[in-house]
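Slide 14.
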Amino acid sequence: MRTSLLRLKTVCLTDLRLQLRHGFYAAYAVVTAIYAVALHQLADVAGPETLRAVAATLIFTDPATLGAFFVGGLVLLEKQEGSLTAAFVTPLRLTEYLLSKAVSLTALAIATSLVVAFASGLQLRPVPLVLGVVATSVLFIMFGLAVVARVRTVNGYLLATIPVAVIPMLPALRFLGLESGFLWLVPTRASIRLLEAGLGGPAQSPAEMLYAAVVLPAACIAAAAWARRRFARHILGGRS
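Slide 15: predicted structure.
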């Protein structure tokens, strides 16, 4: 266990350095600053419900974009540089590799989302807010990893990602007044409600809390299993 944690720490630090070298943090600092300024200005002219809907949408799409698209870019870079193949010559386990991507990118998603949340000026509930960000981030990261395992180009990745990126974003339509019982079948509906509650919206009902506690972890575990299976097949040639 200790050896595994040390390997995970090492690969997480490597991922963080890679993200820094390729400008992830600089790009997200600029995007976050734009979001923060826009929300601060909106707070002067919009009511709390509108402000909450805008802030929740920004926070929801931020880790979703970071997870679904940026993780693909990272893995494609590793493929091109040959570092992905080299990584699995070492004692690094596939589970540790996937977990490192989830940890490093989710940490960035939490940081940017909290800045956006505080900039909104809304009364915050940190626990549901962070849980919503983490669940959204991990789910989309695992979707992205599953898709990128078998593609070689950015264009191929973007095309292959459309279904797994668009469908989980459908629950955000509630902010346009479009609700449907069908959306209960999409796990990210629970993410949206967590974010709303975290931004000072109505607290979750017991049914919603149970739904989130069951559906979100199950969805993340299923997505992780899918990503692991695809990596084992397409990157490791059946080895795990």
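Speaker note: The mean pLDDT is 85.
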